[in-house]
Task: structure prediction
Amino acid sequence: MGVGLALGAILLIAVCAFLFARSRAIASSDGLLKNLHSRPSYHGLYSFLWTGLIGLLALIILSVGVTQYTGSALEGVVAERLPDASAIQRQSIIRDAKAQIDGGITSRSGDVRDAVAETYASLKPLTSYAVPGIAIALAALTALMTNFQVGRDFRARNRSERVIRGVLMVCASVAIVTTIGIVLSLVFETIVFFDMIHWDIGSFLFGTTWSPLSGVHSGTLDPAKIGWIPLLVGTLMITLIAMLVAVPIGLMSAIYLSDYASPRLRAWAKPMLEILAGIPTVVYGFFAAITVAPFIRNTGEAMGLTVASESALAAGIVMGIMIIPFVSSLSDDVINAVPQSLRDGSYGLGATKAETIRKVILPAALPGIISAVILGFSRAVGETMIVVMAAGQGANLTWNPLEAVTTVTVQIVALILGDTDAGTAGPPAFTLGFALFTVTLILNIIALRIVRRYREMYD
Result:
């Protein structure tokens, strides 16, 4: 039995628990619902919630525990047979052994793989049958216990609300815990990175050469080749070009759609504009590499300029086109949220529509517009595919948008997906992520201060 079937069975048991608890509540009321403290649907909801939660938690906890146990057992078999095997070799052997039992494709065979496969086959019933069976049994037991609680004086409504409040609190905490986990992982790997370069932080923050894996020997890095300034300059230049394209076009589009366009035009123009947000970034990358970059190069050569085949200008323009829907849609919603009374008051004082937009609507909507720009900026900073295909991967320190540059995110991908050992390539990648996170956080704090200042003015 797979996890999907187990989830379906737990859901079916929870639905049955809801129906039985509701029927039991109706039966206990002697035909008069006023005799019940809570309506029958609350009795059913209480049983449904607890049955589903217990079954789901049991399935998750048992699956994780059995997976960890199975992995440790297989690692032990490999370590016993091949004590000198590297981590990559051990994972390859375990992967082949699992494929051998599951009917997949194996890269090679051997006695060690056969032994691991035999151990995996003996443990597989735990995942396939024991874990789903126990989870389903616990869900059924919970359904039975909650149905026994049904009665006239049982406060099902209060307890259901308490359960729902707890679930919502857990869901709200997930974002906080995830953020803390991401930050801590970045911090720990950054400490490892600086320890590898003997805490020469200045070389990283102010160095102008980025080639951390050149000449790597025995897990050490050359402090003279870990300067992230070229990556920071490339990231900011491409992002600036993108924002110069996206913000004016997106804001003007939002103003036109909200105050000038007819309802009929708005009905089809806004969805057409938002289609841009659903186009995969790899398509934008192809568009930039095949159409925009050659056009910029040919135009520049006709004007006597030297333009690289991969340039920051091409990547920035296409990235700006991609960000237009984010700025336009959010700005349009914010502008439409401005009270009509402000518009009417401005018109009553003799102002034109353009004057009303410039002096009343835009100042009132400025906090929301800045939030839209912040979202667009964050989207541009984190983009990778367009930069890889249109701007290149060379860490070139230049302020010329007609030359090839790279960004922080591109170099992170290059380090993670490279052939270098993860113990050497991982810390530089995480350090770049932490540095980019810090810069983005500082810029967001500045922008939020501006938002708070103007929001106080117009509230």
Q: What stands out?
A: The chain has a mean pLDDT of 84. The chain is about 75% helix and 0% strand. The longest helix spans residues 40-81.
